[in-house]
Amino acid sequence: MRFMVMVKATKDSEAGAPPSRELLEAMMAYNEELVKAGIMKGGDGLQPSSKGARVQFDGAKRAVVDGPFAETKELVAGYWLWECASLDEAIAWVKRCPNPMPGPSEIEIRPLFELADFGEIVTPETAAQWDRLKAESESQG
Amino acid sequence: MRVMVLVKASKDSEAGVMPDPDVFAKMGAYNEELIKAGILLAAEGLQPTSKGLRMRFSGSERAITDGPFAETKELLAGFWLWQVKSFDEAVEWLKRAPFDGGTEIELRPVFEMEDFGDMVTPERRERKDNLRAAFEKHSG
Prior knowledge:
The complex is a heterodimer.
Chain A: E1 2-8, H1 11-14, H2 21-36, E2 40-45, E3 53-58, E4 61-66, E5 76-83, H3 87-95, E6 105-111, H4 124-140
Chain B: E1 2-8, H1 11-14, H2 21-36, E2 40-45, E3 53-58, E4 61-66, E5 76-83, H3 87-95, E6 103-109, H4 122-139
Antiparallel strand pairs in B: 1-5, 1-6, 2-5, 3-4
């Protein structure tokens, strides 16, 4: 099963405070463990929402709202993509994660949809297109 | 630069309602365009929060709360990772996405190694490069 593991934002991450050297080292070591275990499929840190924007869709209209956004603890500050045997395995790995923030923080674990989960709406054409997308995006990555 | 495009949840996505086949096909065509333009690095959909959980970190404590979570419009339902020349290019591409009324999508630049400045020693850069090569080999 594949999972998205999201680190939620805090006041520190939204303020653009860089991680301490200790935290950076601890995270590097943790990431190396994830790679060695064959779990890590990707991951990134996101810049504060002050550097981002939202686009609101309404019919043909598109409204752009610049960041920062207020609801700090609901924002995402970073994520990993993992391949684990089960949700329990993902939980066990998250428990071993160094606290990603200087103060209290929260990590959300969410299973990803696989193409098979979409059932009958997936035509053979869509399935072929999806395979192509995966292959090409992997070669671009 | 790389930009993460975050698709927010809706009542339907949280209820596990499958997309309309027509919308699904339109999204497939849009993804094709992104691929042809060399922009698309990744695209994933997340299962409803009822299938997920949150873990709270405080000191050495780890507290788990099972989903579902209430604040639907702040939850994530899916994302793309795009490679673009500028943030404006990402905004322009997003405007062309086939979403309905009421949808809100968030764009966030991704940190690159350079953004960490002085903290990135040559040793750290090498470790990071090795890490990336290793997980590319694993996921390849």
